[in-house]
Amino acid sequence: MTEYKFRSYRRRLITQAIAPKELTKWHRQIIFSRLAQLCSPLLEHFENDLVWFTDSLEQRLKNTAQQQPKDGVELQLAYRHLRKKERLTYASYAAALCAPWPRIDDHERYAQWLGVIVLCCCQLHIQGQYDSAISSALREIRLIANDAKHANIFKLLPTPTSFHSLAELGEQLEVLRLRYAEPNIESTGIGYLSVAVRSAAHLKQGITRNRKIKTPKFEAPELLTLISLEPVDDSGLEVDLLQITPETTDIQATDERMKPEPGKAMRVHDPQQRQQTQTMIALQGQRFAELLASRQQSLPPSFEQLTEWDIHHLILYCLEKLKQKDKLAGWIILALVTGRDPAWLHARAKQWKLLQLAKGYPCVQMQHSVPASQQAEMLKEVLPEVSGHFYQALPIQLYDWVVQFSSSTKPPTKSECRAWLKDIDKQHSTRLTLGRIVRFMEHWCLNHGVDRVIIALMRGEHYQSRPALSYSHLHQDELVLCHYRYVNAIFIMAGQDPELPTSRKTEVYLGSRLHLSRSVLGNSFDILASPLKQKRDVWTVHNDYTGYVWAILAFATGHRDVTAPLGKITDYNPYQHTWWISDKERRHGLAARTLIIPPTAAKQVEHYLEHLRQLQIHCRFLDPDLAVRCQQALDGSGNLLFILTDKQDKKVPADLTPSLLADLLQTRLPWSRNWARHHLRSELVKYSVNPELIDGWMGHEEIGEEALGRHSFLSMADCREVADIIESIFVTHKIKAIIGWTTH
């Protein structure tokens, strides 16, 4: 009785693996009939090796083999059903038995090989722990018959029935595999077949592999670091930002963080008040949070900043103290000129030679590098060179102080600066604090319409604190000019002359290298459009055409390199030519913007929609799934841009992703895929577009600084100015909208 149950268990195990119950009865009959025709004669030939097959199963196969064989049409219908339902991997036995043989001339020998592999895999299935070997062998024998890359393997295989046992056949396959010194398709394919045959012949037990999970060891996985923030007022509160040590060290490799950033945790401490109740601490924290929110929504009011009266007396007082060899006066002048406190300046002085003499003049050397500053060697002749540092001239009055400066000397503390400034506050009724002195440079530049990117460069900020730095290719002369204007302005307030060196025009650039020359930009779009001029199949044309449409729209909108770029067609208003862009997530609000696209881009959208309509008509009966995907893109239920990828011997629509774009464009776009953001922002700066308008167009505004927010003076009419400039770039470089594929 036990033996009978074991036999019935083996029979159910094999039948369930060959034709799963999820298939219809008609499909299962076709599969079992095909199995009987192929394997019945081989069971008799290798009966000593296939020991796990029961007598009842062998008898059933013989009886089924006597029936009328199924014709090729029924087998082809069964295979199409499996491929359409994406069951080629799940029902691997059925896929191998029903697959067509278009690339095989010797059908009799291939039928023997197909039967041998199926029988060996059945025996391995009973033994257990051979899922990987079974799926690899069945897939290989199927690809040999209908894939051009694997067809050459069949020419090397011997006739299976010429061997008396599976062990001899397996050894011969191993000899064929060892003929190849380096791995290739032939050696790998023969290896899959060899593993199945030899393992079935020797009745080897399968190997169970358990994945080892390695837990990374961090020296301080939850280390909290306190970052002191610049004071927003003069209340004396000490504000620190609590930051957790990042899990990965390559976070600086990207231009800006694409994932949602969590909320910031602040620690507020009042050193003047020693004892506070819990209620007072809560009220103080609430007031500080409200203050931060209001400051992010508008510029600080003028009474919080220094006036000409304060600057006038501060510079005269510091210059007088410098004559008396007071080193703290030099730190105050340096903080006023650079917009950084002494602690920050001293920390950078330890990293590199911050203060030095250049051609006999005191100056500050600032380091600046973004991810796009480094490009491949092959692009050296195509992309412009950029410098990794720049110099800011200091007033000549700091000459002796800079010469005597040493990084080993500790900088003054905040309390020392506060005590030093009390004397001048009493004498001239000024409102000087170290925070106001440090913030005055940014305040002056904003009042004079200086781009925030230039301000960030002058203050030596990191590109992640101001993402627009990553996408800017700036001329060093613009930075020098702004710095000279500021230093001369504050010294003129005091009636003094800083005697800055005469500025000379240079050809030095800073920031990103992804600013293409006129010839390179036009040729890039010509290269993207060149495959469309060749007569090829409609699937390849659609992919290349989608890549060109993406390039046009990405350049016109400054879109980030994200999955499913440009969203759905419902985000586009064809009457006003406006597009709602949402290409970045933000925890505290919706980081989206509305743009007006130029006429060339609008015309390209119309051509692309017509292309989808023509493609839908063409594929209505040839590929219904593709026709449905085209309709989804047209009615807005699916993403607008998609390409066709190969999946199980079929073209399957897939939404655009950064990896798919990389495979599609390859050498035609050798630089970063977000090059359009870099080039577009640099071009808008050259055209002297309003800095706030550029940030709004590129999506660089911070919380409370939205281009169309309640505190903004910009409107959609201003966006038309940018659209006109982009259109002029298209016209200048002869970049045109291209018509897609048509049925005519």
From TrEMBL:
Name recorded for this polypeptide: Integrase
Organism this protein belongs to: Oceanisphaera pacifica
